[in-house]
């Protein structure tokens, strides 16, 4: 008996018992290739009888010629389908077999591989699973289609098999509608889909984090206003404007005091204008803000100002359009050293009075506006509210001040800050939702450039304080204040040594950048890292998880390692 | 990011590394050098371990003197020992 030639495995016997006529055909094959027997036997242990049969058959087929395998596969599929859900997988398989292109020699393998692979779940679900997988394919991205391929195909080029498999899958799509309803299949697919969705998630999660500012605030009028700006701006150097807008608090422009005065009133009133415009939801006002190249800044600025300037929004429509360069310049020349309120008043008046709109004025104003808005925000939202009836100071200023505007706006901001720092910082800062005012107020203390100690001490001390607190925590005992200061001194000295050592190590390696290897060498020399205790151990012990992940390379799904090496 | 964790000592300990501070200090001292991103964290680790050792040593000193409070002298003596040891 051919059965006797098979191993004495009980499974085989069981197989024989359940064998149909077709089995005999396959029984002979194992004799030819005894190696084929143990594997199917092993697999049979895991699976249902139908799957066993299928597996054994498919295994055998795999060992043999491709053409023979193909026929066997078909038979296997037919047999397998017979035990599956009624008709659906069968029709599916039949369709696949009938319509699948014959050219691919790998076809049988692809058919064979996916069959044994998902068999781990259940044989009956395989076809439906595959069918539902196929359904999922159009929904999900290509990576999901890799799932069955990856699962099944271990041997050869996965791409080739996938393409082949995909063809079959796509062909089998129409008839595979029914297994879609299978709960198991859906669960299988869902589970499969889930596994392949995970690598996508971190990427998708990263994106929202990068998109900080909603770009929706951009107005349509930016283009026109920019054109106006360029057309009318005489001495306005684009780089200056860019510099101003993007970094209104940039230091290099501090030195020009006279221009600052001129620019003071102009930006103030222009800023009021901007605020009011924002209140009135004027697109061009927002465009003004945008023109300043401050991008996100003016827009949120304006939005924030809306509340305060609501009162001022009355006569703005006329004013905004009518502001001329002269008007803008006028306030500039007005009393510079006055309080912000006065300036705001002036600016507001100017805004209101500017009956004749002019493009040039507009061009210059936007820059001033933004600066003013910023200044306003930082110092006197309240002030802006009061001065409704701005005086006619606008007339006094001349055109010459306008070119100064652009360059002097940052200086103006500077001067204003310095002046108004004592007057009204808190309320304005609190009101401002936008960023520039906040960093402005935060930077104010180190701003006054007292050479030496002040800017150095504060952030340095706070950093050392952080470690001193850790010291007191680790000590678990009460400490004197002097002891804490002592600790800070020690840390200071230690930092010096540390920097020197790192410099030496980096130079020794011929580098100018200090890298983690230098740090590891340093710790080894200090005796922290030994042959018994490695750096990774120390990292795991003392650093929180987020840092651990960044320092210690770890393998993630999708065959990736993070951080990449 | 765990900004702070409540400890049994009722103290809020920040587990966040002052990366900006470390980078700035390094830049101030060695402007011609550059510090890489992850080495920043290792510097922080180094400081943590140093502070740990210092604290242990200071506590030992204080206990030897039968003091319930860590005093300046204890810290000073501890610092001498530790800094000498970690010279490399």
Explained architecture:
- The complex is a heterodimer of chains A (565) and B (88).
- Chain A is mainly α and 565 residues long.
- Chain A contains 32 helices and 3 strands.
- By secondary structure, chain B is mainly alpha-helical.
- Chain B has a single domain (19-86), classed as Histone, subunit A.
- Helix content of chain B is 60%, strand content 9%.
- Chain B contains 3 helices and 3 strands.
- Chain B has helices at 19-29, 37-64, 72-85; strands at residues 4-6, 12-14, 34-35.
- The relative contact order of chain B is 0.09.
- Chains A and B meet through helix 28, helix 29, strand 1, helix 30 and helix 31 of A and helix 1, strand 3, helix 2 and helix 3 of B.
- Strand 1 of chain A pairs parallel with strand 3 of chain B.
- Chain A: Residues 345-355, 362-372 have a biased composition (Basic and acidic residues).
First and last CA, distance of chain B:
33 Å
Please state the structural category of chain B: mainly alpha
End-to-end Cα distance of chain A, whole Å, is 60 Å
How does the major sheet of chain A shape up? 2 strands, antiparallel
Number of strands of chain A: 3
Secondary structural class of chain A: mainly alpha
Strand order of the largest sheet of chain B: 1-2
Mean of residue pLDDT of chain A? 57
Number of domains of chain B: 1
The number of strands of chain B is 3
Count of helical stretches of chain B:
3
Strand content of chain A: under 5%
CATH architectural grouping of chain B: Orthogonal Bundle
What's the helix count of chain A? 32
Biggest sheet descriptor of chain B: 2 strands, antiparallel
The outline of chain B comes out as: elongated
Instruction: Note the overall shape of chain A.
Output: elongated
Helices and strands of chain B, in order, run as EEHEHH
Main location (chain A): nucleus
Pfam families (chain A): CENP-T_C (PF15511), CENP-T_N (PF16171)
GO molecular function, one term (chain A): protein heterodimerization activity
Domain Centromere kinetochore component CENP-T N-terminal (chain A): 40-419
């Amino acid at each position: 008996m051919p059965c006797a030639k098979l191993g004495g495995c009980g499974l085989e016997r069981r197989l024989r018992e359940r064998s149909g006529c077709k089995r005999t055909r396959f029984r002979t094959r194992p004799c030819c290739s005894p190696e084929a027997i143990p594997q199917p036997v092993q697999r049979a242990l895991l699976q249902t009888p139908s799957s066993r049969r299928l597996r054994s058959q498919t295994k055998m087929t795999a060992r043999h010629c491709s053409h023979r395998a193909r026929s066997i596969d078909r038979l296997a599929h037919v047999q397998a389908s017979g035990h599956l859900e009624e008709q659906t997988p069968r029709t599916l398989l039949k369709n696949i077999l009938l319509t699948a292109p014959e050219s691919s020699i790998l076809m049988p393998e692809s058919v064979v591989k996916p069959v044994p692979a998902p068999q781990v779940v259940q044989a009956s679900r395989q076809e439906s699973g595959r069918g539902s997988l196929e359904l999922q394919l159009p929904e999900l991205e290509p990576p999901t289609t890799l799932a069955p391929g990856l699962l099944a195909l271990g041997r050869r080029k996965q791409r080739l098999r996938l393409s082949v498999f995909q063809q079959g899958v796509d062909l089998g799509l129409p008839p595979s509608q029914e297994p879609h309803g299978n709960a198991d299949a859906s669960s299988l697919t869902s589970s499969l889909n889930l596994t392949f969705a995970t690598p996508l998630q971190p990427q998708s999660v990263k994106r929202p984090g990068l998109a900080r500012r909603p770009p929706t605030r951009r107005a349509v009028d930016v283009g026109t206003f920019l054109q106006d700006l360029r057309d009318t701006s005489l001495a306005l150097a684009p780089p200056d404007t860019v510099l101003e807008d993007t970094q209104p608090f940039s230091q290099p422009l501090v030195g020009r005091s006279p221009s600052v005065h001129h620019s003071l009133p102009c930006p103030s009133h222009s800023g009021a204008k901007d605020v009011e415009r924002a209140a009135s939801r004027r697109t061009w006002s927002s465009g003004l803000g945008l023109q300043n190249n401050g991008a996100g800044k003016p827009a949120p600025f304006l939005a924030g100002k809306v509340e305060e300037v609501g009162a001022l929004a009355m006569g703005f429509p006329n004013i905004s359009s009518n502001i001329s360069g002269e008007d803008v310049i006028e306030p500039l020349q007005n009393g510079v050293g006055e309080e912000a309120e006065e300036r705001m008043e002036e600016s507001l008046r100017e805004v209101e009075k500017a009956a004749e709109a002019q493009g040039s004025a507009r061009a210059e104003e936007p820059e001033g506006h933004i600066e003013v808005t910023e200044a306003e925000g930082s110092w006197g939202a309240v002030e802006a509210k009061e001065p409704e009836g701005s005086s006619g100071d606008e007339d006094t200023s001349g055109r010459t001040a306008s070119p100064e505007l652009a360059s002097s706006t940052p200086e103006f901001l500077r001067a204003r800050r310095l002046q108004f720092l004592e007057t009204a910082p808190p309320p304005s800062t609190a009101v401002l939702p936008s960023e520039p005012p906040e960093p402005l107020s935060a930077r104010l203390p180190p701003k006054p450039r007292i050479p030496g100690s002040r800017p150095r001490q504060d952030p340095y001390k706070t950093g050392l304080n952080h470690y001193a607190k850790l010291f007191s925590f680790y000590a678990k005992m009460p400490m004197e204040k002097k002891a804490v200061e002592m600790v800070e001194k020690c840390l200071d000295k230690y930092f010096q040594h540390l920097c020197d050592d790192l410099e030496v190590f980096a130079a020794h390696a011929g580098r100018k950048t200090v890298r983690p290897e230098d740090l590891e060498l340093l710790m080894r020399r200090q005796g922290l890292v030994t042959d018994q205790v490695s750096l990774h151990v120390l990292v795991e012990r003392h650093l929180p998880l987020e840092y651990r992940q960044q320092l210690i390379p770890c393998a993630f799904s999708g065959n990736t390692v993070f951080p990449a090496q | 990011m765990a900004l702070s964790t409540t400890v049994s000592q009722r103290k809020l300990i920040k587990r966040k590394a002052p990366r900006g501070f470390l980078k700035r200090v390094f830049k101030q001292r060695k402007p011609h050098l550059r510090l890489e991103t992850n080495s920043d964290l290792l510097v922080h680790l180094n400081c943590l371990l140093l502070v740990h050792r210092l604290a242990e040593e200071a506590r030992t000193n204080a206990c030897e003197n039968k003091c319930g409070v860590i005093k300046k002298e204890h810290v000073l003596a501890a610092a001498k020992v530790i800094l000498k040891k970690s010279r490399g």
